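User: My instructor asked us to take a sequence, write out its structure as tokens, and then describe one feature of it. I'm not sure where to start. Here is the sequence I was given:
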Amino acid sequence: MVINQIEQKESTIKKNGWLILLVIIFLIAPIFLTEFYLTVLCEALVMSLFALSFNLLFGYMGQLSFGQAAFYGLGGYTVAMLIMKIQFNFWLSIIAGILVASIIGLIVGYFCVRLRGIYFAVLTLAFGQLIFSVVFKWHDFTGGDDGIQGVFPPGFLKSPVAYYYFILIVFLLSAFILWKIIHSPFGQTIISMRENSERTEFLGINIARYQLITFVIAAAFAGLAGAIWVPFYRSVAPSYLTWIKSGEPVMAAILGGPSLFWGPVLGMFIMTFFHSWVLGFTIYWPVVMGALILAVIFFLPGGILGFIQEKVSQRKEMKNRE
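Assistant: Let's start with the prediction itself. The structure tokens for your sequence are:
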């Protein structure tokens, strides 16, 4: 027992050490990166937050959502319309973006959590496309296919470096909150629902209520990701709400490993930087990305981070036997 406790403490110290090192690297990144790669890094951080919100449903609750981009886009559109149409306060606009995404998530989730498996996935896709259609067709209110242009942040955040640090702070705080949620009694309950929903229900737990709360939390963080990205990118368009956009966190989770908290983050970083690199050679980057995802599915079914963890566990077992 004592040896196991010592080993657990050592592994925790190592994990914390790696996290601290990564945070330091992110803090000094603007010193070494060009403006182009700093923009790519900002996109990777925002999309990683989007992927973490999705993985709350997929990796921990065990339900696949194909409509997560709807909440991402709604957060972005709320900020864009409030800033451009009524010159609303930037910070309050971001809060409003989170609230709008949460409220729509509550409405959509009320219907979706009644279903499971493929039916849940198809219904989220249907709602996502419905919201996309409303945004795309309502030209007088949302700008239609033109979107909304010229969405600027406050003066002190107009610099790419300043806005990068803002995105980094939001990402770190959001990741910390999501980590706490997952490792709380609430988080353990949704994991038990994923493992065996019938037994969890027999314990007297209202599964639909827990799933709805999880759905709203995921929608809120997706809305936050969209809300902070639009002022950096200076515009928003209906493409933010498409099913293709919803597929990005799915691919990131598969690539990095949905069973691990940082798996989708690793997957999204690989996808974002790989996309930027491949675009320098060919416009057919989806073909290359698809081949990469297929290779991971066939050869690394637990994702890249899952594969690494498996190898580390095997080495520890071999050392213990020796």
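For the description part of your assignment, you could build on this observation: The chain has 14 helices and two strands. Try explaining in your own words what that tells you about the chain.
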